[in-house]
Design brief:
By secondary structure, the chain is an alpha+beta fold. It has a single domain, classed as Lipopolysaccharide (LPS) transport protein A like domain (lipopolysaccharide transport protein A fold). The chain has 3 helices and 12 strands; from the N terminus they run ααββββββββββββα. Strands 1, 2, 3, 4, 5, 6, 7, 8, 9, 10, 11 and 12 form a 12-stranded antiparallel β-sheet that branches. A hairpin with a 3-residue loop joins strand 3 and strand 4. The protein is elongated and about 55 Å long.
């Protein structure tokens, strides 16, 4: 059963987030990431910065683009370290994350920056489009996505693969 679950997760994460990573591809991505840091663009209706607690609060129509993903939400809190680099990003209400070929929706998303881990909670749902243009859907209580290796973990998961079920013979059904 564990093997089947692992294969399903690998299949779905590949369909959801692109090709399964290879060592060479991962090394290339790491080198490219180190070579050039892609700026993150954040826009919102308002922003407050509290230097004492190293916190930044974005409110209303929050939009984030980091070059790989686009995120929209109503509220976003960014926790900074003492060098003012983000360590934790919390997005709340109407959270939508778009990445090539997939869209996720949830009530809350937490991004643990050093681990490159995104945790979706509050009715999380991910919809992706496979190579045939068919939609694939994943839901659960909590979805963890690891950006550094495209791995997905889902608690209490439901996965829908289109075209994977039993074909119905319509001609036979009409005669009966």
């Amino acid at each position: 059963m564990k093997l089947l679950t692992s294969l399903l997760l690998l299949t779905f994460s590949t369909a959801l987030f692109g090709q399964a990573p290879t060592e060479k591809k991962e090394e290339t991505q790491k080198e490219e990431k180190k070579a050039k840091k892609i700026p993150i663009k954040i826009t919102s209706d308002s922003m407050k910065y509290h230097e004492d607690g190293f916190m930044v609060f974005f409110t209303g129509n929050v939009n984030v683009d980091d070059g790989q993903m686009k995120l929209n939400c109503d509220f976003m809190t960014v926790k900074l370290d003492k060098t003012r680099n983000p360590t934790l990003i919390i997005c709340e209400k109407n959270v939508v994350i778009r990445k090539e070929g997939s869209v996720s929706n949830s009530d809350r998303a937490e991004y643990f920056v050093p681990e490159e881990k995104i945790v979706l909670t509050g009715n999380p749902k991910i919809v992706s489009v496979n190579e045939k243009g068919e939609k694939q859907t994943m839901t659960g209580n909590k979805i963890n996505f690891y950006r550094n290796n495209n791995m997905v973990e889902v608690s209490r998961s439901t996965i829908e693969f289109p075209g994977s079920g039993i074909e119905q013979n319509k001609e036979k059904d009409k005669k009966e």
